[in-house]
Design goal:
single chain
């Protein structure tokens, strides 16, 4: 009786382990599909935090939007480049000052 029960438990354990393995593969596949979307959302969150902490710069940029005749898209591209350069320089400065 005990041997039969033990065999049933081992079979149930194997079924559960197979189910867990299948679910892990599904989660890994889902994670790889969502990774670019989550990376973009994370980048947007960083931009929003930067804009929130630099309100004067946002106001100045809004003023430039109103004055500039060349177009909003080209100004946005330039602002994006400046922001990325700022982030790169501040990260580089942190690396050198932390030593």
């Amino acid at each position: 009786m005990a041997l039969r029960r033990r065999r049933a438990l081992m079979q149930r354990r194997q079924v559960l382990l197979d189910t867990i393995s299948c679910q892990r593969q599904q989660v890994a596949l889902t994670a790889t599909r969502w990774e670019p979307v989550l990376r973009a959302a994370d980048q947007a969150w960083v931009v929003a935090g930067f804009l929130h902490s630099h309100k004067v710069a946002v106001a100045a940029l809004a003023g430039i939007f109103m004055i500039r005749r060349k177009g909003v898209i080209s100004l946005a591209k330039g602002a994006w480049r400046i922001w990325k350069t700022w982030r790169y320089m501040s990260e580089t400065a942190k690396k050198f000052t932390s030593r």
